[in-house]
Amino acid sequence: MKTAIVIWLFAAGIAPALGQSSLPKEQQTFVDEMVNKHHFTEQSIISLLQSADKNDDILEAIAKPWEAKPWYQYYPIFLTQKRLANGLAFWQQYAEALARAEQQTGVPAQIIVAILGVESFYGAYTGKYSTLDALYTLGFYYPKRSQFFRSEFAQFLLLCREENLDPGSILGSYAGALGWGQFIPSSYRHYAVDFDGDGQRNLFQSPIDAIGSVANYFKQHRWQTGGSVARQAVVSGTKYQQFLTNDLKAKYSWAELQSAGVNILTDNAGANTSVADDNRFALLSFAQVDHQEFWLTEHNFYVISRYNHSPLYAMAVFQFSLQLKSAWQTLNNESANNE
After folding, report:
1. 3-state secondary structure of 101
2. H/E stretch holding 253
3. Residue 194 three-state SS
4. Percentage of the chain exceeding pLDDT 90
5. What does the pLDDT look like over 263-307, one tens digit per residue?
6. Which of 46, 139, 184, 245 shows its CA 20 to 30 Å from the CA of 274?
7. What percent of the chain is predicted at pLDDT more than 70?
8. pTM of the entire structure?
9. DSSP secondary structure of 265-311
């Protein structure tokens, strides 16, 4: 069990000249950066690195992400009756905070509820891995993305200093994501808000802070209030294939997609078939067991994907949000009829 390391995180003065250590070169470079750029003490960072453990389970987990599955295997993980029931209960319990977040940011309540359900099952599964070990392991033993995770390691230490957290006691995902909304450390620092007004941005224990923070995340990533997310499509011919893309930015006009044999599936429940001249789309396909499913995705779909860059993830969140909205409307209609 690691020794708690808290006090040294608050050493804010300029550190003394660095001495020699027996750390590997990459780790010493990290120490130097934390001292010179962020004004930690050298010994505090060295002690921290020496207390961290390389975890091979983390390396195995990141090599097999759920997003590598085909759509027909991916969506049943998230679109379940249990998650829907819990999401509806969460919405009922925190209706005021969700309405306030929607009013202030323009992000629909069902999107916020969907994110929190997909990310942590409403706080039930926030991660079992030491965040210190996860970011240490991926920052120094995962060359494919070591630069990114080393940066997140630095962000994590800054977050701990700012929020008075013990880095050795925090648990999260194998990739270092934290709390109800599973924010990576840089997102926590930049987008988390104190939405319950208690003076702390607490994404570990405050569902209301999590609600406000998810809404703020989407607002800062330019969510378009009232805008569509995605519409199921049908295709004909072969010209549409030139528009299939892994780039989630909506950049194709409706006219050029139509001319290539793409149309909106008119019997798709809730689909908005009216298209403004300035609408832009991406055309994506999702693998079902025996066919490909096509979707026209818009700017707000791209915004969802900023949370997790996988189109599978964004589509699961979107479809879950539709389930939530429908269930919430049914619940409210039943309540109105019973009055």
Report:
1. helix
2. strand 252-253
3. coil
4. 83
5. 998 755 445 567 877 889 999 999 999 999 999 999 999 999 999
6. 245
7. 90
8. 0.90
9. -TTSTT------TT-EEEEEEEE-SSSEEEEEE-HHHHHHHTTS--H
Q: Which residue in this structure is represented by tokens 């969510």?
A: 223
Residue where the block lists tokens 């240490």:
136
Cα–Cα distances (Å) from 272 to 160, 187, 265, in that order, read 45, 33, 10
How many helices and strands, by DSSP H and E, does the chain display?
A: 14, 7
**How many other CB atoms are found less than 10 A from the CB of residue 123?**
18
Structure tokens belonging to residue 308: 């997790």
Which active-site residues does the annotation give? Answer: 119
Q: Tell me the two tokens of residue 268.
A: 């798709």
Two tokens, residue 338: 């019973």
Rounded CA-CA distance 132/16 in Å is: 25
Tell me the CA distances in angstroms from 153 to 2, 133, 229, one per residue in order. 17, 10, 33
Tokens 């998810």 sit on residue: 214
Each as own residue / partner, the long-range contacts of residues 262-267 (CB below 8 Å, 24 or more positions apart, any chain) are 262/233, 262/234, 262/235, 262/294, 262/296, 263/233, 263/234, 263/235, 263/236, 264/231, 264/232, 264/233, 264/234, 264/296, 265/231, 265/232, 265/233, 265/234
- pLDDT single digits (tens) 76-134: 999 999 999 999 999 999 999 999 999 999 999 999 999 999 999 999 999 999 999 99
What secondary structure letter does DSSP report for 197? Answer: S
Our CA angle for 268, 271, 276, nearest 5°, is: 140
Q: Are 155 and 186 in contact (CB under 8 A)?
A: yes
If we measure between CA atoms, which residue out of 181, 138, 178 comes closest to residue 156?
A: 178
